[in-house]
Amino acid sequence: MRKLECNKCGKEKEGSYIWESWCADCSNERRKVAKAAKRAAKDLPEWGSGRDPKCKTCRAVKEEPYMNGSLCRQCKLEKAKADYIKKKAEEGTPSRRSGRNPICKCGATKENPDSGFCRLCSNEKKRLLREKNKQDPDWVAAETEKNIARYRDDLEQDMKRLCRKATFSALRKGILKYAPCEVCGIDDSSVQAHHDDYNKPLEVRWLCSWHHAEHHKNEKK
Question: Which of 91, 120, 163, 207 would bridge with 201, disulfide CB 3.0–4.6 Å?
Fold first, then answer.
């Protein structure tokens, strides 16, 4: 006759566990111990999804939101782009960006045809989003902490700040004078001082906000 008590703890077995040697609690505990030992052998944390914490393609450590997947953020993005291009090639249709309208919704010609908006509309969209976010105290606190952390113990940022301070002091004293943008020739309030060397605050190139941003963007590339 089948024994109704658990062989380990002596508690009465229930349900389908009456056909097993151990009760439900003891069986579950044994499975947990076996699983933890198996994960330890693979050098994985004791509990979790069981996924390898490293990307299977580039072997970099995956970001926190991507831990339950096989790929890191960069590899997943590249795979999605490759799949999209392959799909469009099979369909024989142009990609979404190559078919974009070069005219912005405001009627102006876009500076970059691949963008959704012209520069002015894009800036206005960002400004409205920022004004909306400013109503959220948590967002303001997070942005403040991010800016403080960015400049804390950063010698390069300190050098930039002192260089700009010296430049504006020279402008007030008349040692330096504003000039038109050296690229497009625009002469208005958008003209900014650019320094190729922050150790030389009086050696200034005058660029409008657009070409100033483009210059730093090309430098990063």
Answer: 163
